Amino acid sequence: MNDGDRDTPGDRENDGEPRPERDTGGSGASHPETADRDFDWRGWTLVAAIFVAFLLVPGIIYVYPHAPSAVGLSFWDTYLVLPMIPAILLGALAVWATTRP
Fold first, then answer.
1. Where does the chain have alpha helices with state H?
2. What is the residue-level pLDDT of the chain in tens, covering all 101 positions?
3. DSSP string spanning 25-43?
4. How far is CA 84 from CA 53, 67, 87, 91, in A?
5. How many CA atoms are closer than 13 Å to the CA of 89, on its beta-carbon side?
6. Residue partners of 81: CB distance under 8 A and separation at least 6
7. Region entry Disordered: which residue ranges (predicted)?
8. In Å, how far are 6, 9, 57, 79 from 83, measured between CA atoms?
9. Domain residue spans of the chain
10. Predicted TM-score (pTM) above 0.90
């Protein structure tokens, strides 16, 4: 057999025959294009959380800067902790919304 007769991977791709599907080993994994990825209620929940984290909470802090001190929060608590609470919730919600059972 000379080098010109060898079947290289590039030659197999161009011969017009479809490739067999790769065995996933029984893991049940599927290709991302075949997964059902509709923008359903999980997506709208994530949009609502983004609205709260990026607009509502900072807007409340901006419009009413003295309101948190009325309930006992200091300046640092107001500007560091209050935005962190919706940010952590937004991160957890994003993980929940993008994982499917």
1. 9-13, 41-51, 57-63, 67-70, 75-76, 82-98
2. 555 555 555 555 555 666 555 545 555 566 666 666 677 888 888 899 899 888 988 888 888 888 778 888 888 888 888 888 888 999 999 898 888 66
3. TTS----GGGS-----HHH
4. 9, 17, 5, 11
5. 17
6. 73
7. 1-36
8. 63, 54, 7, 7
9. 32-98
10. no
